Amino acid sequence: MPVFPQNYTSTVSHWQATNRGPGSLWDHGRTDVLPSDADIVIVGAGATGVSLAYHLTRPGMEKRRVVLLDAKDVASCASGRNGGHIGPASWEVMGHLTKPLSHGGGGVSEEDALDVLFFEQETLDLCELIVMRERLDVDFWRGYRLVVSTTPEGVEESKRTLDAYHRAIKRSAKHGDKRLDASALFDAGEAERVSRVKGALGMKWTPSGSWHPHRGITALLKKALENKDMSFYSWAPVASLKEYRGGWTVDCGDRGVIRTKQVVLATNGYTRHLFPDDFAANTGIAAHLTPYRGHAGLVVPPTTYAGDKSLKGQYGIENGPYLIQTPYAGIVLGPFNATVVNTFGSPRDLYGIDDDSVVVPKFREWLANYCRDNYVDWGPESEGEGLARAWSGIMCHSVDMRPLVGEVPGKTGMFISAGYNGHGMATIVNITRCLAQHLVTGVRDHRLPRCFDISQERLDRAAAECLPLLPPEPKL
Ligand SMILES: Cc1cc2nc3c(=O)[nH]c(=O)nc-3n(C[C@H](O)[C@H](O)[C@H](O)COP(=O)(O)OP(=O)(O)OC[C@H]3O[C@@H](n4cnc5c(N)ncnc54)[C@H](O)[C@@H]3O)c2cc1C
Questions:
Q1: Coiled coil: which residue ranges (predicted)?
Q2: Does the pLDDT value for residue 416 go beyond 70?
Q3: Is the Cβ atom of 47 under 6 angstroms away from ligand 1?
Q4: I need a labelling partner for 139 at 20 to 30 A (CA). Which of 33, 145, 384, 441 fits?
């Protein structure tokens, strides 16, 4: 069942609201006639679709006619309504990625987990390189993220995974010569003083970055559009995809039909709708990729947290938010999934929801109160300070905690990159660099972590071993 056009109006994020000037790309190609054929059609103009188009149009790439389509505008879904972090994983991957699937983990080996860790670190370098090379004016910032533990269990988990990381690095044939530029502090008093988070028990610093995601993705799209073989059509929802003489037809309803050799689904939380129901169910793709809704907000701090006293960079706080200090506007924050479940008690507040038109009042209240209640000496908020805006957005949960990337099993010429578990900014630009190479050369790019590859075997294993996301409905 197609989900587009939507029968509701989405909330507007801080990023979308602050990129409305003449340099933005709202409604780009909205009324243009679609071409009748292409070499590659990319469905979805979020970070995945746009960065893929960017990589495919770089000098030196073989000439291809690339068509990018979106059901709405560029960065209208998760990519334009996220927390702004380009926050690579650090040693915590040795916990959640190596945990068995049957315990809610990724079920991969420690070498695979290290592949992911260093791939994500490289993603930050790649983002920085692109921003510098292209001279993008997108509020890019690079520094360290403070990951703050607020429970004894959180401190223990951080120590345990740090040890596991050191052991894995020592044993690793592939990554043994690499070092993660990160450090930890496990002294409660110092952690509270340095982080300014009440009740902090420990913390780590890990390399991280941020940008204005809506301006960032728009800027990449403009670079891609400088190539005459590339075109972008907004408000062109794809209703269905059909195999056609060794390629695909992409049906955009009233907008027209495009024939293409290759098609890429860059549709994240909305991907399952593009497969016939029986195919999605039989392959396990429908069960593997679940949409879920997150909330975020913009808080204008009192002057106790401005200027010299503003937060330096970004945070991830256990049982709290991911949070960044923007250069001018204030603080963007949103609750982690674990925070939502621990605070509000139900995964039903998150999973299986693909409607971003709503800000649920209890999450608005949480966003309004968090900084005031949890930062040391925050102080009173005057009229105009505090929560200035709140929004929601749809992400995509992959049940085995890893994105699905590559050619869809049984569908020659159809590719996918989706399922980032709310962490796409730390992987996408690097994944799509690999995917662009794959599309052009026909050979998988060896830089992509193996554990991201989509295969029927991986889907089957997840279907057999992963826990259901939602508890059974209570019997009445
Ligand atoms: C509240 C929130 C906070 C987040 N915070 C962070 C963060 O701080 N750091 C981080 O790394 N990640 C974060 N994320 C996750 C991150 O934003 C996503 O992982 C990333 O944006 C996914 O990019 P995407 O392009 O794959 O998906 P999307 O941005 O969702 O793009 C998919 C696109 O496909 C289009 N589409 C879907 N179906 C069709 C169709 N049938 N026809 C045409 N077009 C279609 C949609 O319109 C959409 O534009 C957050 C997400 C949310 C919602």
A1: none
A2: yes
A3: yes
A4: 384
* pLDDT beyond 80 at 157: yes
- Exposed, middle or buried: residue 242 (CB in 10 Å: 0-12, 13-18, 19+)? exposed
Strand, coil or helix: 389: strand
Can you name the CATH fold of 14-81+214-289+400-465?
A: FAD/NAD(P)-binding domain (3.50.50)
Q: Average pLDDT, stretch 426-444?
A: 97
Residues 279-293, mean pLDDT to the nearest whole number: 93
Residues 229-243 have pLDDT tens digits of 999 999 999 999 999
Neighbour count for residue 278 (Cβ, 10 Å): 9
Q: 223 phi and psi, to 5 degrees?
A: -60, -45
- Strand partners of residue 38: 260
Our separate counts of H helices and E strands in the chain read 13, 17
Ligand 1 probe mutation, 251, 267, 366, most atoms within 8 A of CB: 267
**In CATH, what class is 141-207+290-396?**
alpha beta
Instruction: Return the domain boundaries, the chain.
Output: 14-81+214-289+400-465, 141-207+290-396
Cβ of residue 71 lying under 6 Å from some atom of ligand 1: yes
pLDDT tens per residue, range 89-117: 999 999 999 999 999 999 999 999 999 99
